Amino acid sequence: MNTESSAVPESFDSQQVAPVVISATRPLYWSVRRELWENRSIYVAPPAVAAVFLLGFLISMFFLPSRMRAAAALGPMEQHKLIAQPYLIAAGLLMLTTLVVGVFYSLDALYGERRDRSILFWKSMPVSDLTAVISKAITPVVILPLVSFATTVVMQWIMLLVSTAVLAGSGLSVSVLWSHASLFQTWPMLFYHFLTAHGLWYAPLYAWLLLVSAWARRAPFLWAALPLVAIGAVERIAFNTSHFFTLLQERMLGGGGGGDNILTGILSMDPLMHFTPGQFLISPGLWIGLAIAVAFLAAAARLRQYREPI
Fold this sequence. Notes:
The chain is mainly alpha-helical. The chain is about 80% helix and about 0% strand. The termini are far apart.
């Protein structure tokens, strides 16, 4: 009996399960995937806008042969602008879509989970508030620009193939179209532009919206805009200056007021234009903006820790 009784605990000890070690990045990975599951506008809106644009582009194909004949009489620069213009407009439309989706996503990211009370479930998961907030910041800063870039590439490629088929069917040469569209030279710059101008440069904007989203009990859009308007108005009344509004304009539009414009180069998707990514990456405006974004995100994580369902 003594032999059997001592054998049981020994067998039990041998079957003890080792504690599961979870990688530090695993919760962040699954949190980002959660954002994609819950916010389909991130990957639905850019293709939807591209589909509408392509419909209009297909209708314009009826006039493409006459437009190419007219372009043959122009100089090289005018010819390039005329041919490349639809591709630049298509990319610009996707950039605008990226900004709009990013703003509305950030405003609803932390407010929505309190409104539908899902924050109670997600707080029961082994994911810290900081990880949850970082995953929500990664979505508009990294994921959304990448989705929009991929959509732009597919859309421009379809535009080029359709234009080629129309010109070939009309008996016109396609070499001029391919040389001026120059998509293979444009796409690397476009990739850089989406990640920097629409990701890193707008990071303080998205972080501010996330902070408001974590704090506001209702109408987060109003609470996000009112303080900015109030600060600008007070500065205008007290000092008769508008430095704050100029700062916001430079952040939203990539610089203003003349002089050296950091984003002049990277905003251009035209391969004939000069762009200086090194100058952008060492610019004080980028790093000051990122530091402000980190502060906003830390405050948003702190707020989320104590926030309850609305």
